[in-house]
Write a structure and sequence with these properties.
Length: 92
């Protein structure tokens, strides 16, 4: 779990930095008084990206909890969590 968490954490931090950049771009668009629909589109994209980061963190929490309750080697639980995380990211 530690090696996986290190990899996942790095990916999440990168995602959050991209979201931060998107939000700075939205702020600049607002300051320039760009088209409201274009601003809304960028806000929607940032919100979706943030939702995906949230789902990844929830999956990590579920995985950690399930691994602590089980034998710590449950590939079945890991696969199930991955599947549910993908579904949440896709349909939420």
């Amino acid at each position: 779990m530690d090696a996986k968490w290190t990899k996942d954490k790095s990916a999440l931090i990168s995602r959050l930095k991209r979201i931060e950049g998107q939000l700075r771009g939205v702020q600049a668009m607002m300051e320039r008084e760009d088209d409201c629909e274009k601003i809304a589109q960028q806000l929607s994209a940032a919100r979706k990206a943030l939702d995906k980061a949230f789902y990844q963190m929830m999956a990590c929490a579920m995985e950690k909890d399930l691994m602590q309750r089980g034998d710590g080697k449950s590939h079945e639980a890991e696969n199930a969590i991955g599947h549910f995380t993908q579904m949440m990211a896709k349909y939420a």
